[in-house]
Design goal:
- Two copies of one chain form a homodimer.
- Chain A is about 50% helix and about 15% strand.
- With about 280 residues, chain A is an alpha/beta fold.
- The first copy, chain A, folds into two domains: about 60 residues; about 210 residues, Uncharacterised protein PF01937, DUF89, domain 3 (Rossmann fold), CATH 3.40.50.
- A seven-stranded mixed beta sheet of chain A has the order 1-7-6-5-2-3-4, with helices on both faces.
- Chain A is globular and about 55 Å long.
- The model of chain A has no long low-confidence stretch (mean pLDDT about 95).
Chain lengths: ~280, ~280
């Protein structure tokens, strides 16, 4: 997905929000806005929004000296999600369609996104999303692809959401490569966060090599590129990975909640819709 | 009021919205964002937000070649407000407290603000605001000041709202100077717009001399400055005029709806509260 004009003021807001997480003073926060503002002229709209976001979050870290502004919140969200695990596991095991129930729970986890300007409450949002209609629902194609697959590349998104992904991964019952960001960016899941989320128990965790809040092949390492090409099935979680991969030529299934108008419009759904969308299916 | 950090991404959004009103193409809109982004480093937070806004809206006009991007909408809002006049006049005349009813209607008009990122519906918002509790309600002090006044400086804000101001001005029953912006900025009322709104029938229309979407004394002409100093009563409508005048030393009564979190926080009320606030009373 290309960068839309509306992404630019949104990225400025994100820079300010991330800066505030570091407890920087007003002068430092103003410098973040000054420098991100001056960056805009170097952003080609052909870039994916997550490539631009990478530059902006790097600017925040350089100015504040804080590499992982959301570290504390990430840990809290992982703990909070873990507390819900037993109850959710029971829900899946007693569901009429356990796979679909696990998909819904994994998408519900996608509300834990500190890059977007929306408040969330994991428990409430879980209850809502478990009953919500899908904006796009390519479930039959997904099941067909899954049934004929041995290996799955599962591209993770946010911390906390990552915990719920373990439940879906158990339902998939395949060899799973769980791809994470190479470095901290927003509240996205890194290698260490994936371990804290319990993903090492159900998958092989790999770094995508990217420093952007979404996988982009041009920035990925060879291992990720190989898996993206050769895995039987690719599952991509969240907006950031959609932004980075939506124009790729292979079959990918995107699981996400459309949390902003720009993404919703690009996908062709309404804001706040939940999505199970396959491309090139 | 000083510029808050949150005003900066908001001003970027405003630049984009104003640019879109001119039907500029994507490349031109990107240039607007590039140039407004580069402006940020020159904005001291000690500036009032409306001084910064003036620079940003001038940038939009310079790049697009359109001096009054909101001209069509301004005219539509004036016409729409005029259609409601007979019904509103009846409401005031049959009200228990006609002055207060006219104040409420004048504040309700303040929802017609194209600088903020909120949708409005004049008729619905009128109904709501006529029954809404005030966040701050310095009505007794206002009436005392009014009773001992011969001349009133009434500082207008938006087009459409300006039509409702005629109803309040009739209730005041004083010599009124109605101050407008010197040039078009957002949907703020200019001299020509004031004539279209019928303000020449009930007041003496004067230009404040400012090109910002809010009166600021340092940018005002001498006539406005004299009136601001010497008028018996000053009534200031809307957020922009509050931003520009809230730190002045004379008694001013501000009538507005707090349409963003930054303004609400500065005033000490909740977002969407309606306000009749006197300073230095």
């Amino acid at each position: 997905m290309k960068t839309f004009l509306d992404c630019i003021p949104c990225l400025m807001k994100q820079a300010l929000r991330a800066g505030r997480q570091t407890s920087a003073d007003e002068k430092t926060l103003k410098r973040i806005l000054d420098e991100t503002g001056s960056l805009i002229k170097n952003i080609p709209l052909e870039n994916t929004p997550v490539e631009t976001a990478a530059d902006i979050y790097k600017t925040v870290s350089r100015i504040t000296g804080v590499k992982d502004p959301y570290k504390k919140i990430k840990n809290e969200n992982i703990l909070q999600a873990k507390e819900l695990l037993p109850e959710l596991e029971k829900k899946i095991n007693t569901a009429k369609d356990p796979l679909l129930c696990a998909i819904r729970i994994s998408i519900a986890g996608n509300v834990i996104d500190l890059g977007v300007d929306k408040k969330f409450n994991i428990s409430n949002d879980l209850d809502k999303i478990i009953d919500q209609d899908f904006g796009i629902f390519d479930y039959e194609a997904f099941k067909e692809n899954l049934n004929s697959s041995k290996t799955v590349l599962f591209i993770g998104d946010n911390c906390g959401e990552s915990v719920f992904d373990t439940l879906l991964i158990k339902q998939l019952g395949k060899k799973i490569y769980y791809a994470v960001r190479d470095v901290p960016v927003i509240n996205d899941v890194t290698y260490d966060d994936a371990i804290s989320s319990g993903l090492d128990k159900v998958s092989e965790i790999i770094s995508s090599g990217v420093d952007s809040p979404g996988a982009v092949l041009s920035k990925a390492n060879n291992h990720f590129k190989d898996l993206f090409k050769n895995a039987d099935l690719v599952i991509s979680k969240g907006q950031g990975n959609y932004e980075g991969l939506s124009l790729e030529k292979r079959t990918v299934f995107f699981l996400l909640k459309a949390k902003c108008q720009v993404i919703a419009q690009d996908i062709g759904v309404k804001e706040d819709d939940i999505i199970l969308k396959g491309i090139n299916i």
